[in-house]
Amino acid sequence: MYKPEKSVSTFLTFSGDAEEAMAFYLSQFPEAVEKSKVYIGEENRGETGKLLNGTFELRGQSFMVMDMEKEYAPAFSWAASILVNCTDEAEFDRLFASFADGGSVMMGPEAIGPFKKVTWITDKFGVTWQFVW
What is the DSSP string of the chain? Predict the structure, then answer.
């Protein structure tokens, strides 16, 4: 049984592409850490071979992802998003280009208040991210 290292974590439910999403997110942050993967087997409800749960960390923030049968999986909404404070303009530009590819840019990039660049993107998996620099 998986026991999380942190008491609060972001949990994302996908409709079949949780492992692909997790791999994409891990590839975007050099310091990302994959923690575990548990697959759906014959004894679990769902499509065998999909992720029952996958855990990882991005900059110390823990995430868990899972796959759910398409007819039961809830849709993501931009009402909740993942905020990333970029370390520099190069990181912002790289993340913007990567997450916008196949996704939908909802805002920006543009300067807002003290930030030189802000954007709001729903990625190709349906998860919404805000990048600020």
Answer: ----SSS--EEEEESS-HHHHHHHHHHH-TT-EEEEEEE--TTSSS-TTSEEEEEEEETTEEEEEEE--TTTPPPP-TTS-EEEE-SSHHHHHHHHHHHHTTSEEEEEEEEETTEEEEEEEE-TTS-EEEEE-
The angle subtended at Cα 121 by Cα 115 and Cα 127, nearest 5°, is: 125
This prediction's pTM: 0.91
pLDDT 10s digits, 67-113: 998 899 999 999 999 999 999 999 999 999 999 999 999 999 999 99
Residue 120: count other Cβ atoms within 10 Å of its Cβ.
Answer: 18
Query: CA 23, 29, 35 angle in degrees (round to 5)?
Result: 55
